[in-house]
Write the structure tokens for this entry.
Amino acid sequence: MQASPARQLNTQPLKIGYLPITDASALLVAHALGYYQEEGLAVEQPVLFRGWAQIAEAFQAGQVNVVHLLMPLAIWLRYGRQFPAKVVAWNHLNGSAFTTATSLTEPAQLGGKLIAVPFWYSIHNVTLQMLLRANSLEPVLGSAAQPGPNQVELLVMAPPDMLPALASGRIAGYIVADPFNALAEIRKQGRIFRFTGDIWRDHACCVVVMREEDLAQRPNWAQAVVNAVVRAQLWLREHGADAAQVLTTYLPQPLEAIARVFTTPLDSYAETGAVHHLHWHPQWIDFQPYPYPSFTRALVEALKQTAVEGDTGFLAALEPDHVAQDLVDERFVREAIEAHGGPTAFSQPPNWERQEEIDAA
């Protein structure tokens, strides 16, 4: 009997790279529950990295071959660094927030403050700058002088370093994936100022990224990986209360912080100002794997309006429709979704389309 395609290609071991954040949940749950092995894949223990620069470098060097990357980072990698990275699926929806010192409760109080972002090319930097502009505040990068009363200075910081920096008073806030926002509240060292999913409804943050050559040379291997990730996302949607316990094997944060992300209804934050759009029915984190072209196009346009350090010449030349077709290879995730009940199994429209909703006010 002929072996399945995945089993024919299991000589390519799966090497997963991830950051210690709940954005990595689908990749990690697929490992914990044995989904990769059930697809016939040989898989190594996932490797934890502290920051986005480190995981991007490891991916480019071939130390890992499947990673979750910030969607804007994937754009920068392919077009800014000319590295053949391809997005094959979304890893999750939402899952991030802007956390500040407990004394900061109004946007005007952010003026003159220092705020950390995890990477210049991140949905965090994009949505934070949307929030600042909506409140007549100017983001400044790498300013040697003290920012003015209507300016907010931004710097890049690795996610694990953010809460200690906030607790020590080095920064006034940070915007990042969880459970670092939940942990700040549990330790009473910060307050969630605004959820990013309340600025850009059900945005993608991290996406599953592979090398273009792997998709071309090992399509059955790639399909097997995506199958496992899609199955893990379905499990996460149905077993949110159990997810935190599974993830404690991979994430160093306490169970209480991880669990809060999966079990806390966001309507409880309406009175604090962290949620403005209850009619969006927001969830702290959710899962659906299809990479909507509308999001990619809107993200390219948003990046053109976002201040980042370094050479941004490549951004000006990017055409949103081209990026939506060239950066993303949706063949594998479409097949996997269809095999697991279609888009409606993830509470998504059956026609594979959606309209982006953005409101930072």
Notes: The first strand starts at residue 16 and ends at 18. Residues 5-94+203-346 form a domain with the D-Maltodextrin-Binding Protein; domain 2 fold (CATH 3.40.190.10). The first helix runs from residue 5 to 8.
